[in-house]
Amino acid sequence: MATKKNPATAPGAVDSSESESMGPLAIAGVAPYQEQPGEEYMNERQKAHFRKILTAWRDQLRSKVDSTVDHMKSEAANFPDPSDRASQEEEFALELRARDRERKLIKKIEKTLRKLDQDEFGYCEQCGDEIGIKRLEARPTADLCVDCKALAEIKEKQLEG
């Protein structure tokens, strides 16, 4: 099977939204999980499936950090024109902001991997219900079921308003 190079990991790539819009399944190159009739929730096959997704996602994000450092070193220049210098500084600031969001996401992924190791993955932290395979594939770091997440968002909007 031929592997396709992800342009988001190329040095100089600034747009982190590409990896976010691709989704964890696409990044990991993993097909959606096919549940078997009568299959126990969060069995070893399911855990292995999500571990593969989470580790591939984390590794891809880590490689972007390395490419950012290389890019900033190679592209750093002392432009005599203030506009050129300001443009480069703004580009670097955007890139660093994206990497900061990704650093936080890496921490969340590592927390989720620890939950997998402790058999706590896949269950809502608030009510204890199953989060569900499809929701976890869309957002592997989810720690609330759909109902609890909706309630939390409603409460958040009420506090803002």
What report would you give on this structure?
- This protein has 161 residues and is mainly alpha-helical.
- It contains six helices and no strands.
- It has helices spanning 17-22, 24-28, 44-75, 82-117, 133-138, 146-160.
- Helix 3 (44-75) runs antiparallel to helix 4 (82-117).
- The longest helix has 36 residues, at 82-117.
- It is elongated, with a radius of gyration of 19 Å.
Unreliable residue stretches: 1-20
Largest sheet geometry? none
Distance between the termini: 52 Å
* SSE topology string: HHHHHH
**Structural class of the helices, strands and pairings?**
mainly alpha
Strand content range:
under 5%
Chain-averaged pLDDT: 83
Give the C-alpha Rg: 19 Å
Note the quaternary state here.
single chain
Number of helices: 6
Helical content, roughly?
55-70%
Shape summary: elongated
